[in-house]
Amino acid sequence: MAATISSCKSTKKDSTAGDEAVALVGPTFNADSAYAYCEQQCLFGPRTMNSEAHDKCAQWIINKFKQFGCEVTTQNADLKGWDGTILKSQNIIARTKPEMTTRLLVCAHYDSRPWADNDPDSTNWRKPVMGANDGASGVAVMMELARIISNDSTLNVGVDFVCFDAEDYGTPQWSSAPDSQDSWALGAQYWAEHQPQGYEARYGVLLDMVGGEGARFYQESVSKQYASEIVNKVWRTASQIGYGSYFPMQEGGMITDDHVPVNEKAGIACIDIIPFYPDCQQSSFGPTWHTINDTMEHIDRATLKAVGQTMVQILYSEK
Q1: Strands, DSSP E only, in 171-223?
Q2: pLDDT value at residue 2
Q3: I need a surface site. Which of 5, 33, 154, 205 has the fewest CB within 10 A?
Q4: Predicted pLDDT of residue 98
């Protein structure tokens, strides 16, 4: 997960919110299944750039999306990290119903942080992060969405699931190098700059750290700047199907994340579903963010369910 630019919590109620309940549409999101996909990624070990675990997990992700009937392509690039390291990056693109021209984008990153530079114990700062929440959870939700879509013929739009690489290689806190915001989200930057000719998506949703204990998904400020109608749609939907407690109608931080290049370089309105912990001293992203404790022990099926079922409702409500 990339760095926080600012934190501007607001208690102002969003006037567009609707609390009336609506009927569920689409299939049931299975949180146990998503949890298992999250766990499988972690079994490879930390998926840090240029590692065997990273490459094995990438191949597993490709195979799973193919198993669910997706048309899968990869986007390979040598990208330069903040320290000059050449990162062997591979974005993974899995498309449902590729023949459909009306499409939605759902995305997450699958690489994990090479350095636990926000760990309370400084002896851990150069150890890799497992990334159960920060990386694996978003991919796991997308996989479960792809699985249930493959068993259901009623979806009216095509979905492009994009697994971004090289998101979390941003400048570590312990480095004396300046923390350039461009050192984050390298795979998403490349994807946004190398779109197939004529590619369009109605809008996009980025899933980042969507499985953590105690997570609450405040409205992220860059998302509101570029795609306020989509923010309103998602948060209203969550409230209407009973997950309003997970999606407060309040503003959180302004975040540098994969959705920034999607908005600014690809021109696709994209929001970020990302947690905000206003009372956490360790980090506003929660106590496990960029620490060695970002493990499966802190993944909550109820959080996965809240995000996953909200996404099902969003996708199946599109006409």
Answers
A1: 204-207
A2: 54
A3: 154
A4: 95
